[in-house]
Amino acid sequence: MSQPTQLLTFRTQGRWYACDLLWVREILRQPSLTPVDQAPPIVRGLIHLRGQILTALDLDLRLGCAGTGEKPSACCIVFKTSVELGRLAQQPEAAEQAGQDLLGLLVDEIGDILRHDDGVLPPPPESLSGLDPACIAGVIPRPAGLVTLLHVNAVLRPSTVTSV
Known about the structure:
Mean pLDDT: 80
Shape: globular
Radius of gyration: 15 Å
Oligomer: single chain
Strand order of the largest sheet: 8-1-2-10-9
CATH class: Mainly Beta
Order of helices and strands: EEEEEHEHHEEEEHH
Largest sheet: 5 strands, mixed
Distance between the termini: 40 Å
Number of strands: 10
């Protein structure tokens, strides 16, 4: 029997999403962003994080939604690099798919930690058809509504950062 996966939930533009907690390094509340001239729209700015430079991406734009512009109360989910994931013996394949740069996603709100038993997830409903299907792993039914599970490796793929 496999162990349940822990998922971090977060909200943006009124929709709830989740990602595998294994990928999450930390959460920054109300980060200070430095804009980058001539960067793709998905790159909202850079964050100086204890001597490292973090690229902050707009999750709304990455998923194909219209961005809402400034998010004064935004949080940034900072994801582990391939080096950090490589140290975790539980999912070595994740390290192969992660980038080497420190990346984060800007979201409106951080939710709870969910436990999900590994199993087949129902496909996303057609109402999510506007979202990039490569980024969606499935949906998780919850009493308060559906939570869309993201493929973090697809969301953070370097080619999407420069091509969007």
